[in-house]
């Protein structure tokens, strides 16, 4: 392992040829966050709409579909991913491109960019705790005896999750990729089954339903519904932030060939289910599955939800790497891992403490979600 006095990083692979390893790696690292949005996004959007009437279902489905198309597919995948800095994406990559030509706006642009990076770091610190806690709590559906041990199990999972980060994004993607491939295939099949029984729901793909619904319910309700609809887009920024790990082409192919169709099918399937049985609006995702498949579905959902936090973790490490390589934030000593590792991370000599920093923050957030014990209350009183 060689070290130097100059900041170096693993070469980005934005334009490398698409290989199966890169496609699986992208599935496991990049798409986990947006891939788990169907668990809650459609349900919360219907709640914001005030009910599961036919007009609301069609309107919400149309809003979700066109939000994904316009914001993720067109904005991020088609346009924003074309603005790379030597193959790297993310906030710092954009700053590196924009600041040199900003002229008198340089300082203001730098402040805005750093604020955006700070927000992303905040997201990266709380997302693992929220994702893992919700995943472990979901196990209570399969086995209620797990409920008293939610926090200890979540803590163990968080420590394991952060402990493998030093292996590099290639190894993490190789580990998580097959699980996410099964997850997206399951979403597609579950949605397709209900879509076949109620094909009329395909009409929601027309933007006319979104526009008609927005015009009918008024600005206030539309604003509230859009706030919930945008839950379907969480993790979309990771496609750009993680571009340097797996490449522009691999992310685009995975998105258009596999992830986008699966997401569209599962949202349409939930809509078809609610149109056929309005009472299912309380939990349309898990009701997509028959009773005999519910336990496997919960277990797979738990695994996918844990993996969902990997997208922001990889983005956070990439952000650190880009900041180190940017002139205003140049840091002296760093280490390059062996080149044989696919889509590797760059680490400072002190970067070994980064997983500890994030894991301690996430663990602290997780532990604060439970009620304090009487002993803790007495200690706080003193």
Question: How would you describe this protein?
Answer:
The chain has one domain: Up-down Bundle (Amino acid/polyamine transporter I). It is globular, with a radius of gyration of 22 Å. It has a three-stranded antiparallel β-sheet, with no helix packed on it. It has 17 helices and three strands. It is an all-alpha fold and 382 residues long. Helix content is 66%, strand content 2%.
Task: Determine the strand fraction and express it as a percent band.
Answer: under 5%
Tally of helical segments: 17
Total number of strands: 3
Give the helices and strands as they follow along the chain: EHHHHHHHHHHHHHHHEEHH
Our Rg estimate from Cα atoms comes to 22 Å
CATH-defined fold name: Amino acid/polyamine transporter I
Shape: globular
The low-pLDDT segments are: 1-11, 331-362, 365-382
Instruction: Compute the average pLDDT.
Output: 78
Number of domains: 1
The CATH architecture assignment turns out to be: Up-down Bundle
CATH class: Mainly Alpha
Give the structural class: mainly alpha
- The residue fraction in helices comes out at 55-70%
CA-CA gap between termini: 50 Å
Strand order of the largest sheet: 1-2-3
User: What does the main sheet amount to?
Assistant: 3 strands, antiparallel
């Amino acid at each position: 392992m060689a070290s130097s006095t100059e900041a170096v990083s693993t070469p980005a692979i934005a334009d490398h040829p698409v290989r199966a390893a890169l496609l699986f790696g992208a599935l496991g690292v990049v798409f986990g966050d947006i891939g788990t949005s169907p668990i809650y996004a459609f349900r919360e959007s219907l709640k914001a709409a005030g009910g599961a009437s036919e007009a609301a279902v069609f309107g919400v489905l149309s809003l979700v579909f066109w939000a994904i198309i316009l914001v993720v597919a067109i904005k991020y995948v088609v346009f924003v991913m074309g603005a790379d800095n030597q193959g790297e994406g993310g906030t710092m990559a954009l700053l590196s491109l924009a600041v040199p030509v900003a002229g008198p706006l340089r300082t203001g642009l730098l402040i805005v960019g750093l604020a955006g990076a700070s927000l992303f770091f905040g997201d990266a610190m709380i997302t693992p705790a929220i994702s893992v806690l919700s995943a472990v709590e979901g196990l209570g559906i399969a086995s209620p005896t797990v409920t008293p041990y939610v926090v200890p199990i979540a803590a163990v999972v968080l420590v394991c999750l952060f402990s493998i980060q030093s292996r590099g994004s290639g190894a993490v993607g190789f580990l998580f990729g097959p699980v996410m491939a099964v997850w997206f295939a399951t979403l597609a099949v579950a949605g397709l089954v209900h879509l076949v029984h109620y094909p009329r729901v395909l009409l929601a793909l027309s933007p006319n339903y979104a526009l008609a619904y927005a015009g009918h319910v008024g600005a206030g309700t539309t604003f509230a519904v859009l706030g919930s609809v945008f839950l379907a887009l969480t993790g979309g920024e990771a496609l750009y932030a993680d571009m340097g790990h797996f490449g522009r082409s691999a992310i685009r192919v995975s998105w258009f060939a596999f992830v986008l169709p699966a997401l569209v099918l599962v949202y349409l399937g939930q809509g078809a289910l609610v149109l056929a049985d309005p009472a299912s609006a309380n939990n349309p995702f898990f009701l997509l599955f028959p009773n005999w498949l519910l336990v496997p579905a919960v277990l797979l959902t738990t695994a996918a939800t844990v993996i969902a936090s990997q997208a922001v973790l990889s983005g956070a490490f990439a952000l650190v790497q880009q900041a180190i390589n940017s002139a205003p934030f140049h840091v002296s000593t760093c280490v390059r891992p062996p080149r044989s590792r696919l889509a590797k991370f760059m680490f400072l000599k002190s970067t070994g403490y980064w997983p500890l920093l994030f894991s301690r923050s996430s663990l602290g957030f997780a532990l604060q979600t439970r009620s304090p014990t009487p002993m803790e209350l007495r200690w706080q009183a003193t």
